[in-house]
UniProtKB/TrEMBL annotation, chain B:
The gene is bioB. Pfam families: BATS, Radical_SAM. Its EC number is 2.8.1.6. NCBIfam families: bioB (TIGR00433). PROSITE patterns: RADICAL_SAM. This is Biotin synthase. It comes from Micromonospora noduli. Homodimer. The keyword Methyltransferase does not apply. The lineage of its organism: Bacteria, Bacillati, Actinomycetota, Actinomycetes, Micromonosporales. Pathway: Cofactor biosynthesis; biotin biosynthesis; biotin from 7,8-diaminononanoate: step 2/2.
Length: 66, 331
């Protein structure tokens, strides 16, 4: 049996490794952007921006909202 | 006082006649020390010919991504390596978005789709969506679905869409540097049909695509010739994976000069703050623009990026004693 980890391995903005280097520019940009990549598996997510909030769906790891 | 501002005071503020291309260029070339005077004059023009009210709008993407066109600024083109994926909004979520928008006091809700032009599936979704919104939400519905046929224009009128957005994006001479999959003239043709239908025309563009100051003036003059009901003014927010993804953002003072110049070119239009103002102007610049010719805002989030909280804009309008235009005033 596998256990889902909550460790964020990938930058949710650029999709590059989140553990190898810091992503200050991505972190800054994310204040005005929703995530695009699943931080767990790097898949591109289906993102819907709404007038208030957003939702992002990873086919493997489900939906997150902000 | 620079000569162009003296001329504008008489011609635009006094007579309501917008500056021509040469006049707009002179405003765009004003040195920094004259920018406050230009903004004050543009504000006076807005107050005289439009009044103190501010039109508030929310927008939502009905169909995101996967667009066949190659607009070089757009993260929704399927031709670039942008991370934006294709997604459709269902009708209950569309109605909820309209409710969220109306709750801010907005009178306009614009439904947008990333397409060359609508197909039968999109028009069906629009018909059902607009009907559902009108049944549950007290708000005006606008649309932005790309290039239209005459039949589609008539269908949108029949649905009760009161305003149609189709941006020319930039001036005619620079457009081929930004889009190659369709022409500026094709966009103009859709705008002509929309105008003839009786729908209100909403047409603006994006500054900072690499156009020169002269081309910015050309764009203002071409918009003035079109004489749209509304001009949304965007500032490029460079999107990863797009051909313009590495372009610098417009300098704040250049953005403010453009706001004043566009107002002096079009004294009676609704000049709306749209995307990119957060990164180009920040909070202080946003205030300066509202005191420099802007009389409409998009509140909340944009299509693929996020905006300031609606409450921040509404508090600013309250502080500036600029009333939000009521729904009854738009009908």
């Amino acid at each position: 049996m596998t256990t889902m980890t909550t460790t964020e391995l990938w930058c949710d903005r650029c999709g590059e490794s989140a553990t190898a280097t810091a992503h200050p520019a991505c972190a800054s940009a994310r204040q005005l952007e929703p995530p695009r990549f699943c931080p767990h598996c790097r898949r591109r997510m289906k993102v819907q921006v709404l007038p208030v909030g957003w939702s992002a769906v990873c086919v493997e790891h489900g939906e997150i909202r902000g | 006082m620079p000569e162009i501002l003296d001329q504008a005071r008489t011609q635009v503020l006094g007579d309501g006649v917008g500056l021509d291309q040469a006049g707009v260029l002179a405003v765009l070339n004003l040195p920094d020390e004259h920018l406050p005077a230009a903004l004050q004059l543009a504000h006076d023009v807005r107050m005289r010919w439009c009044g103190p009210e501010v039109e508030v709008e929310g927008i939502v993407s009905l169909k995101t991504g996967g667009c066949p066109e190659d607009c070089h600024f757009c993260s929704q083109s399927g031709l670039f390596t942008s991370p934006v994926r294709s997604v459709w909004l269902d009708i209950p979520s569309l109605v909820e978005a309209a409710k969220q928008t109306a709750a801010t006091g907005a009178t306009e809700f614009c439904i947008v789709a990333a397409v060359r032009g609508p197909d039968a599936r999109l028009m069906k979704q629009m018909r059902e969506g607009v009907a559902a919104i009108k049944a549950e939400v007290d708000i005006q519905v606008a649309a932005s679905l790309g290039m239209l046929s005459k039949e589609q224009v008539d269908d949108l009128v029949d649905m009760g869409v009161h305003r149609y957005n189709h941006n020319l994006e930039t001036c005619r001479s620079y457009f081929p540097n930004v889009v190659t999959t369709h022409s500026w003239e094709e966009r103009w043709e859709t705008l002509r049909m929309v105008r003839d239908s009786g729908m209100e025309v909403c047409c603006g563009g994006i500054l900072g695509l690499g156009e020169t100051v002269e081309q910015r003036a050309e764009f203002a003059a071409q918009l003035a010739e079109l004489n749209p009901h509304e001009v949304p003014l965007n500032f490029l927010n460079p999107r990863p994976g797009t051909p313009l993804g590495d372009r610098p953002v417009v300098e704040g003072k250049d953005a403010l000069r453009a706001i004043a110049a566009f107002r002096l070119a079009m004294p009676r239009t609704i000049l709306r703050y749209a995307g990119g103002r957060e990164i180009t102007l920040g909070d202080l610049g946003t205030r300066d623009g509202l005191l420099g010719g802007i009389n409409a805002v998009i509140v909340g989030n944009y299509l693929t990026t996020l905006g300031r909280p609606a409450t921040a804009d509404l508090e600013l309008l309250d502080e500036l004693k600029m009333p939000v235009k009521a729904l009854s005033a738009t009908l």
